[in-house]
Design brief:
Residues 158-319 form the Lactate/malate dehydrogenase C-terminal domain. InterPro entries: L-lactate/malate_DH, Lactate/malate_DH_C, Lactate/malate_DH_N, Lactate_DH/Glyco_Ohase_4_C, Malate_DH_type3, NAD(P)-bd_dom_sf. It catalyses: (S)-lactate + NAD(+) = pyruvate + NADH + H(+); (S)-malate + NAD(+) = oxaloacetate + NADH + H(+). It is a single chain. By secondary structure, the chain is an alpha/beta fold. The protein has two domains: 15-153, NAD(P)-binding Rossmann-like Domain (Rossmann fold, 3-Layer(aba) Sandwich); 156-318, Lactate dehydrogenase/glycoside hydrolase, family 4, C-terminal (L-2-Hydroxyisocaproate Dehydrogenase, Chain A, domain 2). The chain is built from ten helices and twelve strands. The strands form three sheets. The chain has a six-stranded parallel beta sheet, sandwiched between helices. The chain has a three-stranded antiparallel beta sheet with strand order 7-8-9. The two termini are 32 Å apart. 48% of the residues are buried. The structure holds 1,4-dihydronicotinamide adenine dinucleotide (NAI) and oxaloacetate ion. Oxaloacetate ion is lined by residues 92-93, 99, 131, 158, 186, 223-225, 227-228, 235-236, 240.
Length: 326
């Protein structure tokens, strides 16, 4: 299968390559191009699929009125010199299974695709989306040997966006008024922080009772599972793509936004050598600062539980990868 080339470009462009042209990858390609952030290369193992998605997105340009190039390929050489690589390759979960159950298949896909992509774009920033998120981000970092500030996982923005949405729906106010923060791992143990969640600066505890907050926290923790249960054959992809696009935008436009992302912790929050979700400053260099929030004893304990599970899962993933090599 031949790949399409960037034919009508006469100057070097900003390029985002997305590995995995499935639901998340293709929706992200649409967001990045239609926001005019970068040209996009979509890579998948299935021949014809990424080429078809790319052509469909290109044919939307007449209506959308943007000049961004979108290319589909099965060849990593076409992703060369990308500014950002997004890894969205791998299987999603089905009803009744945990994100951790995906390790067996996704560990190999993520490590191999990250290595191949970075071999062609050694200066790129790597954003991992594949689940289980914090585990896959660690494996991709180790497999590529990239400096830690150039590797990050997307989850906290999605989880925080869900929490913000549920707060806005409950109060019947505009989402524009809501700030909410979710830390920790992208799974059942995630740590939504009502204390750091506000309606135009007013703590949510002044706007709703403890029982309501607990219900919204619970719905946030199960935000992904609720969608999987409804759709049966897919997990969420619109909100995940929007959340990933926010990271791409903050990096490419050097916005220095403070966003919750899965980043390497080297002692911050009392955690060593793990990727976990915490607020960080995202700019042109990648992760430019890790922000340490003051946590209560209960919040700290919940955060540590996330770390324990992610560490165990990393060990499990490494054992699987090592066995696969024998
Ligand atoms: N971090 C987060 O918050 C979220 C993570 N996810 C995760 O993102 C991943 C992708 O989800 P969807 O796009 O919905 O799945 P999907 O099944 O629609 O797409 C996955 C794509 O990866 C491709 N693929 C598989 N192996 C590959 C390889 N070796 N190289 C290149 N491409 C390969 C498949 O052909 C498929 O097109 C899943 O692991 C899912 O759990 C999804 C939503 C949110
Ligand atoms: O639920 C899933 O498996 C996909 C995901 O991570 C999310 O939507 O939060």
């Amino acid at each position: 299968m031949t790949s399409i080339n960037f034919t009508n470009l006469n100057c070097p462009s900003t390029r985002v390559s997305i590995i995995g042209a499935g639901k998340v990858g293709s929706t992200l390609a649409q967001r990045v191009a239609e926001k005019n952030l970068a040209d996009v290369v979509l890579l998948d193992i299935v021949e014809g699929w990424p080429q078809g998605i790319a052509l469909d997105l290109m044919q939307a340009r007449g209506a959308e009125r943007h000049d961004r190039q979108i290319v589909g390929t099965n060849n990593y050489a076409d992703t060369a010199n990308s500014n950002i690589i997004v890894i969205a390759a791998g299987i999603p979960r089905k009803p009744g299974i945990n994100r951790e159950d995906l390790i067996k298949i996704n560990a190999k896909i993520v490590t191999e695709s990250a290595q191949q992509a970075i071999a062609h774009s050694p200066e790129a920033i790597l954003i991992v989306v594949t689940n289980p998120l914090d585990v896959m981000t660690y494996l991709a970092w180790e497999a590529t040997g990239l400096p830690k500030h150039r590797v990050m996982g997307m989850a906290g923005i999605l989880d925080s966006s869900r929490f913000q949405t549920f707060i806005a729906m409950e109060l019947g106010v505009s989402i524009a008024e809501i700030n909410a923060t979710v830390l920790g791992s992208h799974g059942d143990l995630m740590v939504p922080l009502p204390r750091y969640s506000t309606v135009n600066g007013i703590p949510i505890a002044q706007m709703m009772d403890a029982e309501t907050i607990a219900r919204l926290v619970d719905r946030t923790r199960n935000g992904g599972a609720e969608i999987v249960k409804l759709m049966q054959t897919s997990s969420a992809y619109f909100a995940p793509a929007s959340s990933t696009c926010l990271m791409v935008e903050s990096i490419l436009l050097n916005q220095s936004r403070i966003l919750p992302c899965s980043v390497y912790l080297n002692g911050q929050y009392g955690v060593q050598d793990l990727f976990l979700g915490v607020p960080c400053r995202l700019g042109y260099q990648g992760v430019e600062q890790v922000i340490e929030l003051e946590l209560s004893d209960t919040e700290k304990a919940a955060f540590m539980e996330c770390g324990k599970l992610v560490r165990q899962s990393i060990e499990e993933a490494k054992a699987i990868l090592n066995n696969a090599q024998i």
